[in-house]
Amino acid sequence: MAKPWVLTRQAEAALKDIAVWTVETFGRRQADAYAEDLIEKCQALADGTAPSKDCRRLVDPALHENLRYARSGQHYVVFIAGPDRMIVVDFLHVRMYLTARLAALGEGEISS
Question: Which of 61, 64, 74, 90 is the most exposed place for a label (fewest CB within 10 A)?
Fold first, then answer.
């Protein structure tokens, strides 16, 4: 059964930034398609039908135990898989230094 999912303020801001950049660079049609891909990935992650990886294995075993990530296009969807809902924490570009950004999330950047 699909669980609901929500975006943190940071994830909302990142999604808006991605949309603006994509419109400016590739146009509205591509921006709409890419946003749809990211949203579909979030839904698949919430449904449990898309693979994801444990952030603790990549960064630090002390990170939030349910903090996970999955790639979608040129971004990683970083999320917390809770029992009743999924919380999308951020969307990070693949060229970012992923381990440093995930470590920062473990230091208190996660807020809804």
Answer: 61
Of residues 67, 53, 48, the one with CA closest to residue 1: 48
Instruction: List pLDDT tens digits, range 3-36.
Output: 899 999 999 999 999 999 999 999 999 999 999 9
Q: Which domains does the chain have, with CATH numbers?
A: 5-109 (3.30.2310.20)
* DSSP codes, 6-42: EE-HHHHHHHHHHHHHHHHHH-HHHHHHHHHHHHHHH
